[in-house]
Each structure stands twice: as C-alpha cells, then as structure tokens.
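Q: Start with the shorter request: fold the first protein.
A: Done. Sequence, then structure:
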Amino acid sequence: MKPRHKRAAISLAVLGAVGVAVALVLNAFNSNLVFFYTPAQVAAKEAPQGRTFRVGGLVQAGSVVREGVSVRFVVTDTLKTVPVRFEGVLPDLFKEGKGVVAQGQLGADGVFAAREVLAKHDENYMPPEAADALQRADKMRAKMADTLTNPDALAQPGARK
C-alpha cells in the first residue's frame, strides 16, 4: 500500500470514529431531554405519550388525596387541569393553591404518573415556565371574556368600541 493510501485509510477511520462518537453523544442527549408542558398543552395532546416530561402550574384547591405514601392531586393553569398520581414523600412546601412542577409520564388513562414533584421554595417564587403558562392562561381568559361581552368585535376584526 502506498503512503498516500495509508493516510487516506487512517483519515477515514478517524472520521468514522468521530462520527460514531458524535452519534452516541447526540443519542444520549436526546434521550435525556425533559420538556415542560402546561396543563392546557397536555389537554391539547401536545405532550408526548410514553416519554418523560414536566407539567407545571398550581395545585388545585381541594384536590389533594393522600393514601399512605400515594398521593393524588390536580395541577391547573387556570384553563385546564391534569390529574397527577405520585408515590413517595412530597416536599414540605407542597400545598394546595401553590406552584408545583411534576416530572413523569402521561398514562393511557390520562393520569400523569409523577416520579418527582418539585414545590416552590419561598412565598414569591414560581418556576418561570409555570408563571409564563399562568400569564398566558390569564390573557386567554381575558380575551375570551372580552369576546363574549363584545360580540361586535368578531364582526369587524380590529375594530373596537
């Protein structure tokens, strides 16, 4: 084999090894990604079925049911709700009406099976994703209320009285 052919073979082998390493790293990165969804997005079936993701919002008042170490509660963004089932010890700051983020998978029955529950850490904190989801829900609710109270706005887009 000529020296030029040896260099080309070594270059191809190194390039192939780098390609395999990059493919393995990207595959590991993709399988460890965990996305955040709001209850409205989960209800609209935007959340992946059978993959781990996070759902966040407020714990609906009166929804917490404890059965030993198993806990059922409902997460809401004030528009839609998602029932959550969790087995384990909840954080001390977990309370009804407070912000929460749960990580797990959505079951075929529509119940979110949480493996981890995160609660806010002080009185003023809410996860940014959950705060943004609540703001969008409030804007949507205000827009819907405006449309219901002012039906003329539908007839003439852009025109307001």
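Q: Next, the second protein, separately.
A: Sequence, then structure:
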Amino acid sequence: MDARLHDIVKNKSKNIEEIVRRNYSGSYLNNTKWYKLIDGLTIEFDEIYIKYKLVYDKIVEGYLFDSVDFKPYFLEPIKYKEVEWIEIPNEYEYWKNRDNLKAGKTFFRQDLKAINTKIDKLGMFKIEKFSDKTKVYAYL
C-alpha cells in the first residue's frame, strides 16, 4: 500500500462525516444511488472510464470500471461517501493492453451521448453536461 493510500485508510476516511458537514451544503448521492449508477453504466457499456475526486483530497484520479466493487466501496478501500464527484470524459488515455504495460498508452473514445441517455434513465442525479464530459456530483 503506498503512502497516500495508507493516509486515506488510517486518517482521512475516519473523519469523512466531519469533512462533508464542514465543507458541503448539499449531498446528492448515497451508496444505493452510486451503486445503481456505476452498475447501470458498466452493464450497458461493459467498461466506463471516469475521473474522480475525493472530498479530502485535491488529486483527481482516473479509473476504468468494468464492474461495481462490493458495497460500501467505490474502489476498495475508498467508500462511496468519500467521493465528491465523478467526471466521464468523451476521450481518455489508457493502457493499450493492461496485461502488457510496455505496449504503452493510447486514446480511447466513449459515447458521451449514449452515456448521458443511460444516466438520465437511471434516475435523478446532480449533473453538469459539457460537450467533452459529464460531471456527476455527490456533494456541492
């Protein structure tokens, strides 16, 4: 486990309710809605690339989802309640072959229009739609 992940598990994630209460005025997603969103997208599109930001971190990470993690985890050890927002880009850079990282990275495209249509069918979410990405908020 790297130092950043260790800090998240041992320190920051323990104070999540306090961080949210202090920094955000509205909560828009709970575990059930997160699970429904990620599950619905990965079933429809097999994989979906997202960028995400945690409520206690300035770093924006990227991840290629092919299925949901076990509840209550967004990505173990990160829980859904720790995610401030996710962003779904129409284009992203990722490994050509995850089994052979020496092959390097390449650019992939996602059908943002189809993704937005699916999100709209899954329920009511606090979202912003742009020409090149969609952002889904858990907290504002």
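Q: Describe the second briefly.
A: Helices lie at 3-10, 16-23, 31-45, 112-122. The chain has a mean pLDDT of 91.
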